[in-house]
Structure formats: C-alpha cells, structure tokens
Amino acid sequence: MNDSRHVTIVMIEDDEGHARLIERNIRRAGILNDIRHFPDGNSALNYLHSTQEGPSYNGPALVLLDLNLPDMSGTDILASIKSNEKLKRTPVVVLTTTDDKVEIQRCYDLGCNVYITKPVNYESFADAIRQLGLFLSVIQVPEIEGGA
Amino acid sequence: MRRTPRLSEHRTVNRLSLAAIVAGFVVLGGVSSGGVFILQRNLEWTHWVDHTYQVQNAVAHFRIATEQLETARRGYLLSADPSFEAAYRATEAELVRSIGRIQHLTGDNGDQQARVRRAFALERELIASDDRSVAARAGGGVEPQRAFAGDTGVETMRAIRALCDEMAADEHAKLAQRSAGRTNTVRSLIALMVLGGVVLVMVALGSIWVIFGFTRDLTASRDELRQLNEGLEKAVRARTAELRLANEEIQRFAYIVSHDLRSPLVNVMGFTSELEAAAKPLGALLERAEAEAPQIVTGDARTAINLDLPESLAFIRGSTQKMDRLINAILRLSREGRRVMTPEPVELGKLFDGIAQSLAHRAHEVGATIEVAPRLPGLVSDRLALEQIFSNLLENALKYLKPGRPGRIQVRAEARGGRVVVEIADNGRGVDPKDHERIFDLFRRSGAQDQPGEGIGLAHVRALGYRLGATVTVESTLDEGATFRVSLPAVLSPEAAAA
Question: Facing residues of B474 across strands?
C-alpha cells in the first residue's frame, strides 16, 4: 500500500536560514517525511539521478527547488528532472524570491507543479509551507518496482 | 580637409563684388561721357569742314563772276550789242555780292580777310577800268582792237585769278586740316570704346573668377558640413545605443540586487518570528517561576523577558518591514524601467476624470476638492505611465494638505509648441524651496514626517517622466501650496519610447 510517508522531501536550497525555516515549518505542519537538504545544484542532481537511495532507484520524492543557486540555475535542475523518464512524475515545488512573471511562466512551461514566492512576511511564508502538507497528502505515488 | 570660407573671406568677396560693380559703372560712365565729348568735337570739325566747303564755293563763285564780267565786257566791246551791256551790269552786281559773301564767311580768318580787302580793291579797279572801256565804246568811235590795246583790266584780271588761287589754296589747306581733325575724333571714339570694352571684360572676368572661387569654397564647406552631420548622427546613434545598454544594465542590476537583498531579509523576518515564538514559553516560565519560586526571579531577568525582548523584536520587525518596502520600491522602479512604452492617443480630460473618480473617496475623507479644468488637450503617449504620474501627483496633493484649510486641487493643461504642459496646483502645506530638487530623489522626503510613505512616489514620477521625454518640476512656497508642472512631448515617438 502506498503511503505518503514514504515520500522523501528533496530540498534544494543554498540559503541555510531558508532551509532551516522551511524544515521547521514543515515539521510544525505535522509532516514527518524524510527531508534531504542540498545546498547546491550538482550534489542535488547527483542524488536525484545517480544515488542508489535516491528517487531514481528508490521511491517517490517531492522536490522543493530554489531558483537562485550558486552553481547553476534552478530552472536547469527543473528541466533535468522533467526530462528524466524515471523522475518526470516527481512533483516539483519551486520556492523562490523571484516573482517575475516571465520566470514563473518559464517554470510552469518546464513542468513545475507549484510555484511559491517566498514572502518576507513570515506568517504568509509559514502558511505557504503548511499548504505543502496538503499537497503531499494528495501526491499519487507511483508504483514502486517490487512493491513496498 | 578642405578650407572653410571664413567670415572675413565672405566680407572680401562682398567687397570685391561691390568694387567690380562700381568699376563697371565707372567705365561705362567714362566711355559714355568721353564718347559725348568726342562726338561734340566731331560735330565741330564737321561744321568747320562744311564751312570750308562753303568758302571754297564762294571763292569759285567769285572767280566765275569775274570771268563772266570779262566775257560780257568783251562781247560788248566787240559787238556793241546792248544785251551784252545788260549782262555786264548784272554780272557787276553779282561780283560785288560774291565778294561780300566771302567776306562774311571768312570773318574768322585774318589772312582771308586781307585777301578779301585786296579782292575788293582789285575788283573796284577792274570795274573802274572796265566801266571806262565800256563807256568809251558806248560813246562810239573807238575801234574794238584799240579798245583792247590800252586795256588795263587784263592785269587786274590776272591779279584776281592769282588771288582766287591763293584763297582756294588756303581753304584747301584748312579742309585737309579739318578733315584730319574729324578723322582723329572718330579714331579717338573707337579707341575709347575698345578701351572701355576691354576694361569691362576684365572686370567681368575678375568678378566671375571671384564668384566661382567663392562658390567652390561654399560647395566644399557644405559637403564638409554634411559629412560632419552624418558623422554626428552616427555618433548620436552609437551613444544612444550605449546609453540604452547602460540603462538596461542598471535595470538588471537593480533587479538582481533587490532579489538578493530579499533573500537574507526572509531569514531575518523568519527567525525574528521564531524568536517571538520562543519568547512565549520563556514568558510562561517566568510567570511560573514567580508563582512557585519567586526567590529565583531577578529584576534583570524580568526586565529582559517582559520589556527588552519584546521591544528589540518589535524594532527588528519594524525595520525589516521598512526594508522590505524599500526593496519592493526599487523592484517596482526597475520593473517600470523595463516596461515597454506604447504611445497611443490619450485624452487628458478623460484620464484626469478617471483618476479624480478613483480618488474621490479619499478626497472626501480629507475634505478636499479636485477641479479638473475643462477642455484639456490630447496627446500621444503611454497611457499607463501618464496615469501613474498624475495619480502619484494627485495623491501627494491630497496627502500633504495644510491642516485647517480645505484642500483645493486644480488640474490645468495647455499645448505649448509641440509640448503639453500639465499643472497640478494645490493649496496644501507646500515644499520648502531648498527641498525642491531633493523631493525627487529616491527615499527622500520633505517637511514634517507625519504621513506614511517611503519617499518613492516623486522619484517614480520623475523616472517615468524621463521615459516619456517629460520634465517634472515643482514651484512652491512653504505653507501656501505647491504646483507640480509636467511638460510632456505632445507626440511620443516610438523610437523615443524604446530608448
């Protein structure tokens, strides 16, 4: 039986503070899933595509993606996920400070599932993260080979 | 590079042209007055030549009359025919008349007058001698042959003939001299005219040379000017492109900076909230400690938890919020800077009616009226930018009223030679003259800071104005109101909009 608890949350975020705040709010929302944090694009891509326990080989994941990364643009990672046969159904939530219309449009074109602008207002921020809990509960986890 | 004719050369050419014209007229005048003079001389000479011919005629007539007298006398002496006598008498009278005529004609010539006097004497002598012989013949008796034998008239006749020859020779000499004089005047005339013609041709050639030279210089400088102009246009285009690049660079910079500034701000805000959340259990702990073990609660700890902590958190929160507003303002300015202006026909009257309507509620709240003058001109510009500019100015007018004085805001506009000048005048608290430029700077404000705002509105107005090719200025006296004046191009060209 599929359980949303098996979904690993992959957080790609270079700002440690943002990562900590996101994690705290996720926990506060009562979401107890594993959270894997990557502060740069390369290590994240490596985990997503090549690692044994990564989502390519080992089960469903939810990606939280910041667009401003030190080594590459978040949209490159998004494109890479959506063009991978095994990963393309993985939900990607873009969570960034950019509220430029063109950028948002581009992310949706690349297959992003949700786009959340990080508000400076902390209450809105916490709310937005809590919404992820709802989102997580409705994820259709694909059948894992060999069964759970 | 070719020489450019200077002002002094221009003057030289003008002077030369004037000199050529004057010289031409002088030559023409000289030739014509000289010609008149020479022609007068010619007429005089002709007159004298005619006169000489008349004198020659008269001398010839005298000679003929003398011969006729002799012929008539001889005829009479031979034939005693009375008809000869009659002819003789008639010729005698004719002879006297002809000498008188010579005397009259040669009144100017002393030699001829002397000869005329001699002719008179000879003539009288001849007539006297002839009369004697005629009278003797008429008295009869005298043979014709004898009558001739003692005739003294023959000598006289010879003398008269010689005298006539003398007179004729004199006149002939005079005729030659006068004809030569006349011919000379004609030659002088021809020479004068040729000389005049040559001088005129030289003046004309000189003028043409000067004018050609000047025209060539003018053409050269015109070509040069055109080349310079083209170069200038190229330079302006290049400069415009550079400016556009620089502008884009600044916009991009503002955009990136504002985003990167936002990132740490999210942390500050977030962790401030976390601190606040953490302060709550701390507060609860303090209460419990005071209730259960008051001896462990120090005054310092109480002050820290109840006063210092909330106050510090409030300051951090307030400052972060302000910083967020400032960053948002920069972001908005940068976005506006990148927006493409699309010129379209805009009726200012309708535009202001719309803005006044949207502000009607606020105007009512503060007890102010907005009066839009009738018949405002239209223009071609970016509607959205105009709306933002004028909304901002009207909002400011409503915001900065003089307390205790009912607000009265007037909107006027007029077309002034290719531009439209819009004035928004209020009777509010006004702007100190030293702040007239400062208020257009980003984040700068003037007067009492009793109204919300970050000092962004007017900077935004001016930045938008520049993009529309407009200038925004203010005229104001403190406490008496302010007039904001926006001078816009009546037609915003698409090229200017793209810059």
Answer: B484
| A113 in any annotated domain | yes
Give the pLDDT of residue B147.
60
Radius of gyration of chain A (CA): 14
Integer-rounded Cα Rg, in Å, for chain B is 64
Query: Which chain B positions have a beta carbon within 8 Å of A24's beta carbon?
Result: 274
B225: confidence class by pLDDT, cuts 50, 70, 90: very high
The CA-to-CA distance between both ends of chain B, in Å, stands at 35
Q: Give me the amino acid identity at B330.
A: I
Residues of A in contact with B263 (CB under 8 A): 15, 18, 68, 97
Residues B112 and B118 sit within 8 Å (Cβ to Cβ):
no
Tell me A38's DSSP state. Answer: E
How far apart (Å, rounded) are the C-alpha atoms in residues A3 and B445? 58
How many beta-carbon contacts under 8 Å exist across A and B? 48
Distant-in-sequence, close-in-space partners of B499: CB < 8 Å, separation ≥ 6: B240, B243, B244, B247
Half-sphere exposure of B208 (CA within 13 A, CB side): 6
Tokens matching residue A37 = 């944090």
| A146 domain-assigned | no
**Six-digit token pair at B262?**
């936002």
CB contact under 8 A, B259 and A68: yes
The letter for the amino acid at B382 is D
| Chain B residues contacting A via beta carbons under 8 Å | 255, 259-260, 262-267, 269-274, 320-321, 324
Tokens of B456: 């962004």
| Whole-number pLDDT of residue B227 | 92
pLDDT of res. A12: 93
- The Cα–Cα gap between B298 and B290 comes to 10
* CATH assignment of B7-218, among 1.20.120.1730, 1.10.260.40, 3.40.50.2300, 3.30.9.10: 1.20.120.1730
Edge to edge, the sheet with strand A92-96 lists A35-38, A8-12, A61-65, A92-96, A114-117
Residue B45, Cβ density class (10 Å: 0-12 exposed, 13-18 middle, ≥19 buried): buried
Q: A39: which DSSP letter?
A: S
pTM here?
Answer: 0.52
Average pLDDT in chain A: 80
- CB contact (8 A) between residue A120 and residue B260: no
List strand residue ranges (DSSP E) for A47-135, in order. Answer: 61-65, 92-96, 114-117
Contact: A125, B259; criterion CB under 8 Å: no
Give the one of A15, A98, A120 whose C-beta lies nearest to B324's C-beta: A120
Q: Which domain holds residue A39?
A: 4-137
Q: In the structure encoding, which two tokens stand for residue B275, read together?
A: 């601190």
Q: Structurally, how many domains does chain A consist of?
A: 1
Give the distance from residue A146's alpha carbon to the nearest chain B alpha carbon, in angstroms.
43
Strands (E), chain A: 8-12, 35-38, 61-65, 92-96, 114-117
- Closest by alpha carbon to B482, among B458, B498, B453? B458
Nearest neighbour of B259 by CB, restricted to A18, A97, A121? A97
Residue B162 banded pLDDT, cuts 50, 70, 90: confident
Give me the residue from B260, B266, B271 closest to A118, CB to CB.
B266
Q: Supply the CATH number for residue A85's domain.
A: 3.40.50.2300
Residue B149 has what pLDDT? 59
**Domain B341-498 of CATH type 3.30.565.10:** yes
- Across A97-101, B12-16, B237-241, the highest mean pLDDT is recorded for B237-241
Instruction: Give, for B156, the enclosing helix (H) or strand (E).
Output: helix B153-292
